[in-house]
Amino acid sequence: MSDSKKAPAKKSGAKSAPYTAPEGSFWAKAWTLPAALAALGLVLTLVFGLMGNVDRLGYAYLFALMTCLTFVFGGLFLVIAEHLTAGHWGVTTRRIPEIVMSGVPVLFVLAIPLFAGVYTGSFTMYDEWMHVHHSEHAPDGADAPLEEGHEEHEDPEASLFEATVAHAQHGEAEGEGEHEVHHTPQFEELHHHTLEKKSGYLAPTGWGVRALVYFLVWMLLAFFYFRTSRKQDETKDLQLTNKMKKWAPLSAIAFGLTLTFAAFDWMMSLEPTWYSTIFGVVIFAGSAVGILAFTVIIAISLIQRGVVGKAMNVEHVHDLGKLLFGFMCFWAYTSFSQWMLIWYAGIPEEATWFHKRWEGGWQFWSLMLMLGHFALPFYFLISRMVKRRLPLMMMGAIWLLIMHIADIYFYVMPQFGALTLRPVDFGALMFVGGIFFAYVFWQLGRLPLIPLGDPRLQRSLDHHQSH
What we know:
It is a single chain. The chain is 65% helix and 0% strand. The chain is mainly alpha-helical. It folds into two domains: 38-126 and 199-461, no CATH class; 134-171 and 179-198, no CATH class. Helix 1 packs antiparallel against helix 17, helix 2 (54-85) crosses helix 11 and helix 14 (362-381) packs antiparallel against helix 16 (390-412). The relative contact order is 0.19.
């Protein structure tokens, strides 16, 4: 282990801590790139969002926020899973997801404009079910809210559906080309009945309180594991590992529940009468793909630049590649299962979500995800040779990272209307993602890049494939 205990500091004459990016090296200043993208994204957001179609800005900002949150979800999953299983293979690469998950307070601050826009009525993506409780914000032509036992309207079912149609056609006046609304009396009745039953859960106050609870849980989990791991870097206290492992089962339960309900509240409720019990699992699978692809990219970059010596090598990348391949297949399995069961049941209000993703140009996007998120990378990453050649593995990870972003876009933007890529979509992603990853890269440039005090570190340094 003589040459693996110290990371080379070839790019700077100053001494740096073990396994830390040398002063003046690429990784010491890498945070400036996403920071510059954030500045450019802010300009695009202001010009094409606030000065353009504000409704479109709401959807674009939600897409950007959820994209970054999925990386936090994936980071929490990887860190908790490694402590839960006490595996040694991923110790040297664990600091990357630890830093990613520690950025949840940044996203909490960035979420404030979204929630402020929703509650002030500037962003209308949740208006349909918020109208049930706040009639004063109903779209033009919508009647007062329907409450249980309320008899003021002659035909409350028709009035609520008229509000739905008015909201669905709201962006048409802006030239965005919304989906054509197809409905029958039976569909209208089912739509209203389902929305009425959900009105207790889809209430503005409860929605906001739950959002605060979700962020609080994620911050507590991230702070606990990140700060404990950092403390162990300095103290080398072995009991801290036992402490993190002891809390891993409860942490996994809290993480799973909050991820699932956040996916329900923020993305499934865009189509409030639609429901899928596996939706949270689909989002989790995509989050795992996203963080594993990001970890592979960062790990390979650190290896190629000689920042971590032999602490990360082809053996660790190979294992990450196998996990990435596995969760890519899991994403395909859960996504197909969701579609297949809804198609087989043939229930109209369940099929609405997929109808919007098979018209208005979204058919192309759906097919692209089938091929690009599964079929093509399946045949590429299934090879052991690819997973052990760093340039090829880097290409596969970058491709899946792009497909993951396209996947989140697919969950959010069809609810707004036909497929039309707008500058505000890129601007919002650059702004939110730029700030978030500027924090991540800043931490990567100043902290030890591996958990120095973990008792399994030596086994991870000596790790090699047995097959």
